[in-house]
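Run log, item B.
One chain of 121 residues. Sequence copied directly from the ordering sheet:
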Amino acid sequence: MSEASNSVVHPDFQRSRSGRLVAAERIAEPLIGTEAAFDAAIGQLSLLGAAIATARVDAGMAAEFSQGSLEDIAETFTATVAARRALINTHRRLGAMQRKAGLEAINFGAGDGKPLPAFTA
């Protein structure tokens, strides 16, 4: 089977490289924003958990007073980290789609120079 017949590139993307780049940019911005939002949410959940524990101690309340809230925060934290993993998997799949569309890896991110881990499929 020829490479062309094995391709799953959408016909609209085959029209021009600039069209494919526009599509990639359109996806990159909300993807990067969503990744940043998850990181911010994880940070805020950590701060909230610490604040609940500290406030309970400062108020001289029994540990059972805040236990339910801390369990809820822990559950929310775990779910948020799991959702972040799913978003990372989405990012990987989008990278594979990008390569199928004939686009080399392009860093649309913050450009902070941080190395990416070696992803395994």
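Observations after the first pass:
- The mean pLDDT is 82.
- The CA atoms of residues 6 and 102 lie 14 Å apart.
Flagged for discussion on Thursday.
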